[in-house]
Design goal:
By secondary structure, this protein is mostly beta strands. The chain has two helices and 19 strands. The longest helix has 18 residues, at about 35-50.
Length: about 325
């Protein structure tokens, strides 16, 4: 018989009469002192690796192939005999809102703690004699023959690379006045001194600002915070430019709207975070109905933090809470697509 799983149960024995709740480790029924909790966790950390004979705790619980095999053995959820269910897993979507793009002067908020900037080069870019830099702190260039080099402590350091450069990334640390250079996501210069070592902050970056050379620029700054012990730094995307013409979303919820430039994905779909602050997510889905049923219900497991639901261009629901919604959409359906 194949062993599917092991289980470790570790108990702390107490003679305290109050130790009869759901858990005595934490919460209203807790009877342990801080020292006892630490002792318990240390013992757990000692017993667990020994039980699984994995003292580095790096061995996978199950291989990915085995997990996929198990998933294939699961039976599909049976559909009701007298009801039809249409699953809506695949969607077209787009994040739309404020763009964080720099002007042609490439000025940015002062960077004096840590930051990075990344350039994706166009597929047929001619980058000979091009320069990429963050002020005087970090600079890498290509010579007339297209050979890359970086400048550290005011000296040139040529880079041996046989593949075409498709991505350039600079990471700067103003605390130590050192920086990293990545070419095609590979670390090429490892925490070397600034190009100009005395540089304490930068206000701009420099690179070709031409979509024939650059197809995407993304830069993020980290700023030290002293007023909050729990948040030691803030994050700010100072540029996120892909040089593409903004997609017009007027009429996005109508049948005739052209969504060919939208992304395709399967639920759950997530869009947010600091990089996309100020943006909303728009999602579209076509489905077919042969005959309009007497009653049709749209089930939404979660829409966070809320949103509007349209069917055939009409507002069917305005969702204000995140989870678990069943909406009567009978009056919004029409036969066909």
């Amino acid at each position: 018989m194949e062993l599917l799983s092991k289980n470790l149960e570790l108990r702390f024995i107490s003679h305290d009469e109050n130790a009869n709740g759901e858990t005595d480790f934490k919460g209203e029924t807790s009877t342990l002192t801080t020292e006892q909790r630490v002792d318990f966790l240390n013992e757990y950390a000692r017993k667990l690796p020994a039980m699984f004979d994995d003292f580095s705790l790096e061995e996978p619980i199950v291989t990915l192939d085995k997990a996929r095999d198990r998933m294939k053995q699961l039976k599909l959820q049976p559909l009701p005999e007298k009801r039809a269910r249409i699953t809506l897993d695949d969607w077209k979507w787009i994040g739309y809102g404020e763009n964080k793009a720099a002007n042609s002067g490439m000025k940015i908020p002062a960077q004096n703690f840590r930051c990075f900037i990344e350039w994706e080069l166009a597929d047929d870019a001619a980058y000979s004699c091009c320069s990429f830099s963050m002020g005087d702190a970090a600079k890498m260039e290509f010579d007339a023959d297209g050979q890359p080099y970086y400048i550290s402590d005011k000296e040139k350091h040529y880079i041996s690379i046989t593949e075409r450069v498709e991505k350039i990334k600079l990471e700067l640390d103003f605390v130590y006045r050192k920086w990293n250079l990545y070419l095609n996501d590979k670390l090429t210069a490892d925490f070397v001194p600034f190009s100009t070592p005395e540089t304490s902050e930068v206000y701009c970056f420099s690179s070709p600002y031409d979509k024939s050379v650059i197809k995407h620029i993304w830069g993020v700054g980290y700023h030290r915070l002293t007023e909050n012990d729990f948040e030691t730094f803030s994050i700010n995307t100072f540029i996120d430019e892909d040089f593409k013409k903004p997609i017009d979303i007027n009429g996005w919820n109508t049948e005739s709207y052209n969504d060919s430039e939208w992304k395709n994905d399967t639920l759950p779909i997530v869009h947010g975070g600091e990089r996309y602050a100020g943006q909303d997510i728009y999602m579209r889905r076509y489905f077919n109905i042969d005959d309009i049923p007497p009653y049709a219900e749209l089930y939404i497991e979660s829409i966070t933090p809320g949103g509007e639901i349209y069917l055939n261009g009409s507002l069917a629901a305005f969702i204000k809470s995140e989870c678990g919604h069943k909406i009567d959409v009978t009056d919004y359906l029409s036969e066909g697509e």
